[in-house]
Write a structure and sequence with these properties.
With about 130 residues, the chain is of the alpha+beta class. About 25% of the residues lie in helices and about 30% in strands. Strand 6 and strand 7 form a beta hairpin.
């Protein structure tokens, strides 16, 4: 079996946590069958959204240079709490922003995302 890098493991945990948190708001999300650049495709009712997921253990989301070029609707930022195999998923936060809000930002600190907590914006972002 091929080894799983720390970055890939962290990113996968972030994507799974976004799926779970969306499901708490009656939004189904899954990775596309083929990797075409979107991490998740989410649906509630007749609303479909392509989502890019960025996960951080430091509270700073950087390396966002390639995001503006991609086709997506929302970016999910996952601030993981804990270390390595001792993650505290209930304490970890998930934020959702629109592509327009993100604009050309190259990095986003967690402190700039507080008003975009998934629990507070999911209904508005997935209303028909």
């Amino acid at each position: 079996m091929n080894p799983l890098s720390k970055e890939l493991s962290t990113g996968t945990v972030g994507e799974l946590l976004v799926q779970l948190r969306l499901l708490q708001h009656s939004i189904q999300a899954a990775p596309p069958l083929k990797d075409t650049g979107n991490d998740l495709i989410a649906i509630r009712g007749s609303v479909f959204k392509a989502i890019q997921v960025k996960t951080s253990t430091t509270g700073l989301f950087d390396d966002l240079d390639d995001l503006p070029k991609k086709h997506y609707h929302l970016a999910a930022f996952v601030a993981l709490t804990g270390e390595a195999r001792q993650l505290h998923l209930d304490a970890s936060e998930v934020f959702l922003v629109t592509k327009e809000w993100l604009g050309a930002r190259k990095q986003v600190p967690r402190t700039k995302l507080t008003e975009h907590l998934l629990a507070n914006v999911a209904d508005a972002l997935f209303s028909a």
